[in-house]
Amino acid sequence: MPASNMSEQENKQEHQRMWLNNFVNRHKLGRITYSDEFQQQTWVSNVQLNGTTIGDGEAGNKDGARENAARQALKHLQSQQSN
């Protein structure tokens, strides 16, 4: 689906790494890093904030796994901010 035809929600779901990076920068939380591993035909990615794992994800490709990890990390950070 071309980007111009994507709904805002679909676009947000495809750019979780960007949203996570923006959130971390806006709140001056530190440094985001990813670690990736290929396990039994599945990519597994972990996202760390200042060396602490805050999200993980799996997918059939590395980019998808990183997006899923970023989605989980962003939810985690947003829930901490609301407390």
TrEMBL record:
<keyword id="KW-0694">RNA-binding</keyword>
<dbReference type="GO" id="GO:0003723">
    <property type="term" value="F:RNA binding"/>
</dbReference>
<dbReference type="InterPro" id="IPR014720">
    <property type="entry name" value="dsRBD_dom"/>
</dbReference>
<feature type="domain" description="DRBM">
    <location>
        <begin position="39"/>
        <end position="79"/>
    </location>
</feature>
<protein>
    <recommendedName>
        <fullName>DRBM domain-containing protein</fullName>
    </recommendedName>
</protein>
<dbReference type="Pfam" id="PF00035">
    <property type="entry name" value="dsrm"/>
</dbReference>
